[in-house]
């Protein structure tokens, strides 16, 4: 755990956030607010956020811990609430009157039907920051379609088509891998809106979409298309457009890649990495233009050299010659990576039910700013009675709501 994680309140202490969202993208924005001290109330249905069951999807790693939910809901308080009931909606509106930020990913038609769209909630609290994360954006024929990062972020942005191997698809994209960067965009919008509120005294609605974030992630290549740049046909590995853009195998069959951007400097360095200084003066490879005509030959030369030694040998050689390099890390290697440990990319949470659990920290760092000690993601409805009591509801009223199924508590 980062030494700055203490029992301090955190820079966002006093900020009250209602996380009325499900799955990954929007809760990922809310967890960063919670990490820095905001009071985040996770409003989820009595059956629980769908992400509590993500670990049960066929093909996902097997474990009893709700690890999909765990990652994006630490430091929050869980209120299980049936928003399809009038009583549940009344409780949510009471929370909104006291809140600074309201986050949701519910589709617009449903928000309007429930009466929790932005105009409805602004009428209750003019200072409210209303943050809406969507699949396909606020407008257009697809605005109310269901959307997940696999289809909105990866497929619609051309990112997936770029990575799709010529010989066929080899696997699925990692769970939530488009949601997390999109959640950071929503977080940025929330923080800008809070800054605006400091100046104007009024809240506003902010939004972002998986569709827009996918395009932003692939913006350079899309910019090429927007200026009518000429795209090159994709070519197989034995005849690539760039010998430095393909994957190679070390002698122990580990896959790795390297990068050369400044070719005048990078080409001699690479030749020294593989112990083939003779290639530097070879007229066939003397210029970047010449090398681009014989990329297949270069791939063959490097294949023969790289298969002579295991990955650790090449890791040291690339580092010694100052050439950017990485093997394709396994999950075991990532969680044991000393460079990640040196930068506190993982934190440790003391879970009262299962003991110490490591988790991925958010990527933001504020020098000299203490953060609260992390708490485990809550059990479903763990704070229902507590939150309703803070609203002023009498104990017998709360118990009646629980008995009626309006409010959920841990079983």
Topology:
Blueprint: E1 5-6, E2 16-20, H1 25-35, E3 39-44, H2 67-71, E4 76-81, H3 86-98, E5 101-104, H4 108-114, H5 118-122, E6 129-134, H6 149-155, H7 159-163, H8 179-200, E7 205-209, H9 210-217, H10 219-226, E8 248-249, E9 255-258, H11 263-273, H12 288-292, H13 295-306, H14 311-320, E10 325-327, H15 331-335, H16 338-342, E11 346-351, E12 355-360, E13 371-372, H17 384-390, H18 395-403, E14 407-408
Parallel strand pairs: 1-13, 2-3, 2-5, 3-4, 5-6, 6-7
Antiparallel strand pairs: 4-14, 8-9, 9-10, 11-12
Helix pairs in contact: 1-8, 6-9
Number of strands: 14
Compute the gyration radius: what is it?
Answer: 26 Å
Which sequence of strands runs across the widest sheet?
7-6-5-2-3-4-14
Number of helices: 18
What's the quaternary structure here?
A: single chain
How confident is the prediction overall: mean pLDDT? 94
In short:
The protein is of the alpha/beta class and 411 residues long. It has 18 helices and 14 strands.
């Amino acid at each position: 755990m980062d030494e700055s994680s203490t029992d301090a309140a955190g820079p966002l202490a006093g900020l009250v956030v209602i996380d009325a969202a499900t799955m990954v993208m929007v809760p990922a924005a809310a967890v960063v607010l919670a990490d820095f001290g905001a009071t985040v109330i996770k409003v989820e249905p009595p059956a629980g956020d769908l992400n509590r069951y993500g670990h049960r999807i066929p093909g996902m790693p097997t474990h009893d811990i709700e690890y999909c939910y765990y990652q994006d809901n630490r430091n929050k308080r869980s209120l299980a609430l049936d928003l399809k009931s009038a009583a549940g909606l009344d409780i949510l509106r009471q929370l909104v009157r006291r809140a600074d930020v309201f986050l949701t990913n519910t589709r617009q038609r449903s928000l309007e039907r429930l009466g929790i769209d932005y105009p409805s909630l602004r009428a209750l609290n003019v200072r409210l920051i209303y943050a809406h994360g969507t699949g396909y954006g606020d407008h257009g024929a697809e605005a109310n379609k269901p959307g997940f990062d696999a289809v909105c972020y990866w497929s619609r942005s051309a990112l997936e088509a770029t990575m799709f191997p010529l010989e066929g698809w080899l696997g699925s994209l990692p769970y939530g891998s488009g949601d997390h960067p999109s959640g950071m965009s929503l977080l940025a919008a929330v923080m800008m809106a809070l800054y605006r509120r400091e100046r104007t005294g009024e809240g506003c609605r902010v939004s972002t979409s998986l569709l827009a974030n996918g395009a932003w992630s692939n913006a350079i290549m899309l910019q090429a298309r927007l200026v009518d740049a000429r795209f090159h046909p994709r070519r197989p590995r034995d005849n690539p457009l760039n010998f430095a853009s393909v994957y190679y195998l070390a002698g122990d069959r580990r896959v790795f890649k390297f990068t050369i951007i400044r070719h005048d400097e990078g080409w001699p360095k690479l030749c020294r990495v593989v112990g083939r200084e003779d290639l530097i003066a070879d007229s066939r490879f003397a210029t970047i233009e010449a090398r681009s005509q014989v990329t297949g030959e270069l791939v063959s030369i490097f294949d023969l050299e790289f298969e002579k030694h295991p990955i650790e040998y090449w890791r040291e050689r690339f580092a010694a010659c100052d050439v950017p390099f990485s093997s394709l890390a396994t999950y075991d290697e990532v969680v044991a990576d000393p460079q990640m440990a040196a930068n506190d990319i993982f934190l440790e949470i003391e879970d009262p039910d299962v003991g110490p659990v490591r988790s991925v920290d958010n990527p933001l760092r504020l020098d000299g700013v203490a953060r609260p000690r992390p708490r485990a993601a809550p059990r479903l409805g763990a704070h229902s009675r507590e939150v309703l009591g803070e609203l002023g509801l009498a104990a017998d009223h709360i118990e009646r709501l629980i008995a009626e199924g309006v409010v959920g508590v841990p079983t």
